[in-house]
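Consortium newsletter contribution from the modelling node. Members have asked for a concrete example of what our holo predictions look like. Here is one, prepared for the serine complex that several groups have been discussing at recent meetings.
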Amino acid sequence: MDSARIREEFFRFFEEKGHVRLPSAPLVLKDDPSVFFTSAGMQPLVPYFLGKKQPPAKRIATIQKCFRTTDLEEVGADTWHLTFFEMLGNFGIGDYWKKEAIEWGWELLVQRFGFEAASLVATIYKDDDEAYDIWTKELALLPPEKVFRLGDLETGDETNFWSPGPTGLCGPCSEVFVDRGPQGGVPPHDCSPAEDCGRYLEIWNFVFQQYDRKEDGSLVPLVKRNIDTGVGLERLAQVLQGVVHDTFRTDLFQPLVRKIESLSGTTYGATAQTDRSIRILADHTRAATFLIADGIAPSNEWRGYVLRRLIRRGALHAVGVLSGDGGG
Ligand code: SER
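And here is the predicted structure:
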């Protein structure tokens, strides 16, 4: 299934479930100067979640351009981390809750997209018995041994507790992973989704926005709770295009990889060092292009500096490694 069709199937599915499709917001949000770059589908919708603006509908679906530098060092080192990606998301604004969110996510993955149910596992926040019961009993989608309780706010471990910042809207989340099997990543193969060992590929994050976190860290329950979900298009494409181990082999990256191969005379798959450089170049040129298209120019400060670093890092890999001079 090519990526254009994945996008369209996603939108159609959630339209059937009563959602209104909205276009992607830019990578820089004019109304929210606190956000460096748009890094999640929920960010442009925050005024709706907070009740500051009237949403066009209580159920919204988007495919949001996102840019994150949190995983920058991982980009290229493995075959799936990216700086720029497209996040498919369905959102319930004071509307549906955990059961519907999980049920629809599963239905889309398994019934529409044809994911093998046996290859999926889920994580939940350690105390979220409501989500645990939905997965294992109410909807009975997964056996208990495939639902992992993670995170512990008391010890500062925010795994499976999602918030866009230190204060504000937040809540427990539940993530769905594809188990790529013991050959899926680097050793140790016998690991759990809690460890970033490469065996489990995160596909979908269901965030249950049920708190407003205050400056002192206290969690005030929200009167109107929201659903915020996010699925990486690139990750769906990995699975649906039979290249679950390498996002750079999806149709989203193949034209870029081919171009880098022809410009450099190197073949993707030739050596570990050139492969890493090809991945960095493919990711960084794509990200830089979208940043520039959304009005950012390379500069010495603020967002422009991030873009400049991205271009510089890509260029170093182009000149150093792909030209055969070493470096990178
Ligand atoms: N906001 C969550 C995330 O970024 C789910 O969309 O993962």
